[in-house]
Each structure stands twice: as C-alpha cells, then as structure tokens.
C-alpha cells in the first residue's frame, strides 16, 4: 500500500473479493477433480449381494475417491457386459464368463475385469430329494428348466464333462426367470439351474423346505469357472485408470465392512428399495458371502484377486462350454494392476 493514499472502504471491498476468489481456487479445483462421473450397472435387481455397492455410495466412499457414481439395477450379466461395451455405462458387475464370451466375439472391445467379487461361479443344479436325484449321474434323461441365458445352463457342458456325463444327457426347458423355481416346486420339471443364493431362497419362498432340496454347486463338482467381477470399459481404463482403481478401493472398503456386519450392510439395500424383504435379503447376502466371496483362494490371495492358472482354466471352460471360436488372452481380460493393496483386501477373520 502506498503511503499518503487513503485506504478506502471501496478498496477494502475489492481486496476482500480478490482474496476470497484466490482462497476458493484450490477448493474449486479439488471439487472439479472430485466429480469424475461413473455410471455403474449391476447384473440384477437390488438384492442382498448389492449391499457393498450401495454402502460405498451412501457412506461416501466413492466420493472420497473423487468419484460421482450412479448405480442402476440390471437384467442379467450379458446385458451388463453389453451396457459397458456400448458406452452406456462406464463400469458394471457381470459374470466373468459373459465377459469371456463377448470378448471372444469382439476381441478389440478392450473391456477388462478389475475386481473378482465371486471367487466361484454361483451356478448350481437344484432338485427335490423326493425325486431321488442326488448325484450328477442321476440327472441322465431328466428335464432341467432355466432361461437360455442362465449361467448354469450355459456352463452345463463343463459340469457334464467334469462328472462323466454326455452334454446331451439332459433335456432343457426354456423358461422365464420368474417361473423357474415355481416349475420345480410344482414338480413340473425334474430340476433347474440357477444361482445358489437366488434359487435356493426362491424355492423356499414357494413352499419347499430347505431340507427337501438337493443342491449341486458347480464349484463343488469340478467346475473351475470364476463368478461375477467388476468390469470397466476400454475408454475409462485408457483415459482415467485411477478412477477405476479408486472405485475398487471404495468398493473393497465397503465389502470388508459388509463381511464384518452384514446386518448393517443389508439396510443399504432396503433403503434403496423399500419393497425388499430385508430379512430375506440378509440371508441371501450371507449365502453369497459364505459360498462365493470367502473361499480358500480369497483367504490366501485376498478379496478381488485371481490366480492366473485358474483364470486360464476358467476361460478355457467358458470357451468350450459356449462353443466359442477363439480364446481370449487371460492377461487382457483381468487387470490386476488396479486392485487395492493386498493388505487392504485381507478377508476379515
């Protein structure tokens, strides 16, 4: 300030305005950086297993990573893969085998899995104990019902091969997902395929006691397929890999909390959809965690990871089961470099 010149209120106001603007510049820059948009699609409806995604959103874990995330329900893994491939969504949750199938037909898609949520495929065969179908060999000549896109139906050749069955050992009845369990409960088919934590509870809801159901999980009958993974688009991976890494860190944090307290976690599902049965979805969540998320492999490698020997085997089984003409490169389908640090992915004991 020059001596002898009055410091007027007008000048003071001007200086204050400039100072205020300067002080806001770092905040504005941070705020701009903190709004990287990510549109995310689930593979299915808002159910118990959606809890960690919704928790990460509602508790601000995505925002803490500088992300503005929206989460939509889905209509199947194939649909989730297509949504991400076409650019309608940046990231999604989908059966890894659906990614294999799409990538075999579209080798330049550039999509990658970045976090393996379900260490085993949830696919299983369900029958009623009264039918006497207790082992894979008992399925010969029987009729199974499932949608044409069902993961268990598509992977049936792998299940059959591992258990000494011809691929044509069973007949298939194509049905809408909404009536699959109803047909078995009414004894109109011999069995069904479906996700373990979905079909089991759906059968119970249709009046079938759990101790009257025989379940043959694919993962317990030789099938090496991985299950659902978080996938990311080629565009997002190329332009903002740190956003993908940030999404995985935020989700991983919520998944750890979900494992520690599933009762609290499932409330994020009921708050998103007030029509869900919270008690039912809690059971579904616990089934998914116990059977697909917490496994010997994740206890050793940490949540979200894969072993590449098994990944290659999983891809080979998908290629064989789906009758694909090419085999995608495992190293191009799963990007382990964007996983959170292994110490942060340790399964809570």
Count of DSSP-assigned helices: 17
Q: What is the mean predicted local confidence, pLDDT?
A: 91
- How does the major sheet shape up? 5 strands, mixed
Low-confidence stretches: 1-33
Distance between the termini: 65 Å
| Structure class | alpha/beta
Report on this model:
It contains 17 helices and ten strands. With 349 residues, the protein is an alpha/beta fold. The strands form two sheets. Strands 2-1-3-10-4 form a five-stranded mixed β-sheet, sandwiched between helices. It has a five-stranded mixed β-sheet with strand order 7-6-8-5-9. Helix 5 packs across helix 16 and helix 9 (196-205) runs antiparallel to helix 14 (278-293). The chain is globular and about 55 Å long. The chain starts with 8 loop residues before the first helix and ends in a 16-residue tail after the last helix.
Short key terms for the protein model shown above:
349 residues, 15% strand, single chain
List the helices and strands and how they pair.
Layout: H1 9-33, E1 36-41, H2 51-58, H3 61-64, E2 67-72, H4 77-85, E3 91-95, H5 96-105, E4 112-116, E5 123-128, E6 143-146, H6 151-154, H7 156-162, E7 171-174, H8 180-185, E8 191-195, H9 196-205, E9 213-217, E10 228-232, H10 234-239, H11 241-260, H12 262-265, H13 267-272, H14 278-293, H15 296-301, H16 308-322, H17 330-333
Parallel strand pairs: 1-2, 1-3, 6-7, 6-8
Antiparallel strand pairs: 3-10, 4-10, 5-8, 5-9
């Amino acid at each position: 300030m020059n001596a002898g010149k009055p410091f007027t209120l007008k000048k003071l106001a001007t200086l204050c305005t400039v100072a205020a603007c300067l002080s806001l510049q770092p905040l504005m820059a941070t705020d701009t950086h903190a709004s990287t948009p990510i549109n995310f699609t689930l593979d299915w409806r808002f159910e118990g297993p959606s809890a960690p995604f919704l928790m990460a959103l509602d508790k601000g874990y995505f925002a803490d990573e500088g992300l503005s995330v929206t989460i939509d329900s889905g209509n199947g893994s194939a649909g989730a893969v297509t949504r991400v491939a076409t650019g309608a969504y940046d990231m999604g949750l989908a059966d890894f085998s659906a990614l294999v199938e799409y990538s075999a037909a579209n080798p330049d898609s550039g999509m990658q899995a970045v976090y393996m949520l379900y260490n085993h495929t949830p696919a299983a065969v369900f029958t009623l104990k009264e039918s006497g179908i207790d082992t894979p060999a008992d399925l010969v000549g029987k009729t199974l019902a499932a949608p044409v896109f069902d993961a268990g139906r598509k992977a049936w050749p792998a299940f059959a091969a591992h258990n000494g069955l011809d691929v044509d050992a069973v007949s298939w009845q194509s049905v809408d997902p909404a009536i699959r369990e109803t047909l078995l409960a009414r004894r109109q088919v011999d069995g069904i395929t479906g996700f373990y934590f979905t079909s089991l509870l759906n059968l119970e809801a249709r009046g079938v006691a759990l101790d009257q159901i025989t379940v043959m999980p694919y993962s317990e009958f030789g099938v090496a397929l991985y299950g659902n993974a978080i996938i990311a688009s080629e565009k997002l991976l190329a332009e903002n890999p740190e956003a993908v890494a940030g999404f995985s860190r935020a989700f991983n944090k919520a998944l750890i909390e979900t494992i520690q307290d599933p009762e609290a976690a499932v409330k994020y599902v009921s708050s998103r959809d007030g029509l869900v049965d919270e008690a039912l979805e809690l059971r579904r969540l616990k089934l998914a965690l116990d059977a697909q998320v917490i496994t010997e492999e994740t206890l050793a490698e940490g949540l979200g990871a894969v072993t590449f020997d098994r990944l290659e085997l999983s891809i080979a089984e998908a290629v064989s089961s789906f009758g694909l003409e090419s085999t995608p490169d495992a190293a191009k389908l799963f990007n382990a470099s964007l996983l959170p640090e292994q110490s942060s992915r340790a399964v809570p004991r």
